[in-house]
Amino acid sequence: MARSRSNVLAVLLVALLAAAATLLGAVFATVFFAVTVAYLLIPLHGRVERLGLPAWWASATTATLASLAAVVPLGVALYVAGDRVGDLVDAIENAPETFPVTVAGYTHVFDVGDATDVVVSYLATVAVDVASALPELALKLTLFGVLVFGLLLAHEDAERALIATIPESYHDVARALADRARATLYAIYVLQAVTAIATTAIAVPVFLALGVPYTVTLAVAAGVLQFVPIVGPSLVVAGVALYRVSVGDTTGALVVLLVAGVLVAWLPDVLVRPRLSRQTADLPGSLYFVGFTGGLLTVGPVGVIAGPLVVALLVEAASLLAAEHRDSTQSLLPDDWEAREE
User: Fold this and answer.
1) Which residues pair with 107 in a beta bridge?
2) Are 99 and 111 in contact (CB under 8 A)?
3) Measured between alpha carbons, how far is residue 125 from residues 85, 87, 119, 121, 236 in Å?
4) Which are the contacts of 143, defined by CB distance < 8 A and separation ≥ 6?
5) What span, in angstroms and rounded, lies between the C-alpha atoms of 303 and 272?
6) Other CB atoms closer than 10 Å to residue 86's CB: what's the count?
7) pTM beyond 0.85, yes or no
8) Which of 53, 253, 272, 308 gives 57 a disulfide partner, CB atoms 3.0 to 4.6 angstroms apart?
């Protein structure tokens, strides 16, 4: 009877979660990010609590730190973008309508007038959209902080309630999936964020030395692009190189590709990732890229986190299934295969 009652309550919980996701769709992304961040912050919350702070104050302190970690970079990015968007539009409008490219003695003239008009129009539209979305963004950031605080304060009760709905024989499966989820979220949030900071810090002096315009803006863009798998900061480096080619500085373009490609696009991964990768999920880059791209195209920005997380849990479930049947699975090769090889 007790197990039947637990099953009914579990089904009711799932149904209410589905209804909440449908009715609260406008803030679903904010809720999802808050849940994943709170789940990742539970160890930090425990450390703060062990300092002697009551549970309420420990949750408030941890939530405040998480909110600042989200608000400060976003505020800096918006400030830099707002400060530079006018200059960028002026530079694009003043760019030549055509530019010649000479390769092996042959010159081809590219007409970029129409493309310039499209880019200027797009930048103006984005600036208006961002300005109009600032009140909504502030409300969502407030909701994010409140949710993280509430989840941290009640995470033990929520964990006990969730475990109670799972049969005891599957507790090891739940723990394995939880460990994989935490490792994946650590890789997405912490490792990527530290790598992004390192990329920005390295890019500023490198771009200054190379005479790249809008140094800080492009350095911040290179750091943000660390969250885009595989290509990442290479997009900024390639864009600067193309700009150098467009003004006839082919040598400068090659220098940018070589120097910035190594120091900005490659070096931060080498410096940061090996030192932080021990606590991350062992997820191949190709699968991470599939999750990132598929999630982004399917559900929007929330898919940047949800996509790789789902792929990682899928890999973990497949590993558990393989381990479950490893001893009972028979080889597809003949029994005397090794003897035949010898």
Assistant:
1) 102
2) no
3) 11, 16, 10, 6, 22
4) 27, 30, 31, 34
5) 25
6) 11
7) no
8) 53
